[in-house]
Amino acid sequence: MPIAGVGWELHVVRQNVQQRRGRVRTIGTYQIYHNGNAQNIKGTSVEAKGIGDNKVAGNGRRIQAGTYPLATQAGSHYVTIGYLISNDCDQTPKPGLELQQTGNRREILVHPGHGFLASIGCINLTSALASANTDISFVDSRDRVIAAITDLQTFAGSTFPHHNGQPIDNAWVVIDREP
Length: 179
What we know:
By secondary structure, this protein is mostly beta strands.
């Protein structure tokens, strides 16, 4: 699924699967694009096990490859506007963006991870993970999600929503491959 080259796009390319003590995570890369132009905001993406499934709610799997419009997140644990900046992964609300049009799946987010994986269908952003034994650093992951939100706010300008729970015009997550 190539990017469309229009608007703000967070492109995730799934590459492989890692396993540790019975747990499974999907590893990929991510990069942000403005109207098809690559930005210097990129790294590693981490998702739940596959195969992608948007039909069954709460299935603990990654979502299907595809293109998803974005919205500001209005939850109790994750928000786009008004998140806390804390080094403690237990402090909420943490930063996040919500993917829309995910079939029967709800609350599919781009949000910080920690440990092996902090997702039951969402996307964690992080730096490179050398192996299945490498944990996601919460502070690094949090900073990457904040960088994505800040970049999107700057790109969208005055059209960026002023409240959580609102669609973001001209902004998508594009997910490639089913490894």
